[in-house]
Write a structure and sequence with these properties.
alpha/beta; 5 strands; globular
């Protein structure tokens, strides 16, 4: 696992220890992390603080050229909301830890010119798989199921 996905993974573990959903993300510009975050829907009672959204929020206001030159790392395939933010801010590359437990809008991102790289990292897969088994009701409340 490279250093940036490792940082996203640490964010995901932080979310889990806080009682939340273990999804983490970092935004990298010029080989430096400018924003990191994790899913905080539970912790903050938020409807929108997925890992990617939290990382964007924590990166703060940036010039458009910074977003266009940044890479977003996320432990799980991005949902429609997070994918929309990626496109809105012009992020050109997304590195996904895994998409086996949840397939997000990767094809939609690709159709909009975003390079999507999927690692199928075993640690990311194990973290989400274990969480889904342990807390299916919480997973289903977020994005796991429409039932």
């Amino acid at each position: 696992m490279d250093i940036f996905m490792a940082a996203a993974f640490e964010e995901a573990k932080k979310g889990l220890t806080e009682g939340g959903i273990p999804i983490g993300s970092v935004i990298v510009y010029n080989d430096k992390i400018i924003g990191c975050g994790h899913n905080q829907r539970v912790q903050q009672g938020s409807a929108i603080l997925h890992g990617e959204m939290d990382a964007l929020e924590n990166a703060g206001r940036q010039p458009a050229q910074v977003y266009r030159a940044s890479v977003l790392y996320t432990t799980l395939s991005p949902c429609p909301m997070c994918s929309g933010a990626i496109v809105l801010y012009g992020i050109q590359k997304v590195v996904v830890g895994e998409n086996r437990t949840f397939m997000g809008e990767e094809e939609w991102l690709r159709l909009r010119g975003v390079k999507v790289e999927v690692l199928q990292n075993e640690e990311c897969i194990r973290l989400m798989s274990d969480f889904i088994k342990a807390k299916p009701e919480l997973w289903n409340e977020d994005i796991g199921s429409s039932d």
